[in-house]
Amino acid sequence: MAEKLTNMTNITEFLLMGFPDDQVLQRTYTTLFFLIYLAALVGNLLIITLTTIDLHLQLPLYFFLKNLSLIDICYISVTVPKSLVNSLTNSHSISFFGCALQVFFVIFWGGTEYALLLVMSYDRYAAICHPLHYEAIVNRGSCVRMVSASWFSGCVYGSIHVAGTFSVRFCGPNIVRQFFCDVPSLLTLACSRQQVLEYAFIIASCCFAFTCFTLMVVSYVHIFTTVLRIPSAKGRVKTFSTCMPHLTVVTLFLFSGIITYLAKNFKSSSSLKVLISVLYTVLPPTLNPLIYSLRNQDIQVALRKV
Questions:
Q1: 11-39 burial string, b = 16+ CB within 10 Å, else e?
Q2: How far apart are the two ends of the chain, measured CA to CA in Å?
Q3: May I ask which residue range the UniProt record assigns to the signal sequence (predicted)?
Q4: What is the mean pLDDT of residues 136-144?
Q5: How many domains does the chain divide into?
Q6: Res. 7 pLDDT band, cuts 50 70 90
Q7: CATH number for the domain that contains residue 90
Q8: How many CB atoms sit inside 10 A of residue 221's CB?
Q9: What is the value of pTM for the model shown?
Q10: Cα separation of 83 and 92, whole Å?
Q11: Which of 32, 186, 263, 297 is deepest in the core (most CB within 10 A)?
């Protein structure tokens, strides 16, 4: 596969030049990225451990949360470690095949996480709108099938993007103004501007995101309708509070993605592009464990036990 990809281009490697040339700023970025990466690993591994060993957390919601944490670890590990190694060794290179793999896995994990957030919204819909049939609707078999469908959709999504991006010829220069390989930056290095291809990617991404978002909205319309029918105010608040972590994570994920796509339509500095990329590749995996642990009493109790 590596040989096939290499034959499509005159370029054998790319240079990731997302960080500024100033040594002091590079060290600052490296230290900050390392601390953020460490926090993301610790937080997500803690969620995985708690939802595995605590018997009170053997529920569908925490099965999905465990998968979300696993995806977040993989998602942030695709970009940050390579960037840290390059900065520490003062080397900016990444092989052509390595760049293709990075594009695939960034889109794969990002698409899988988004699909899983849709599954988690369906779980909240079933728990609140059909509590008597919840165990029958969201049983172990259906949980495995929904998670598998999320992973499969992310794999297809990533495969389409990497196949389309690396079907063009790259004539140079080979400098990528990012700390990782992303599709828009790579398409600017193509022999001829692949505007049609780039728009096709954006349309495909928007269709995928809009479909998932529409289904989430439908789920929460039913949830809000059911919550408003609860007679006591305390009951409404308690029921709706179970949805708040998921709503917060979805908002963070969508907000970072929207800002990224909007910003790419405007001319901006390299530093701003790197900051925008951090929004959707680094921030969600780091904050997701914090959001769920702060708002979830069961996880707090399990954490105190440990």
A1: beebebbbbeeeeeebeebbeebbebbee
A2: 46
A3: none
A4: 90
A5: 1
A6: very low
A7: 1.20.1070.10
A8: 11
A9: 0.85
A10: 8
A11: 186
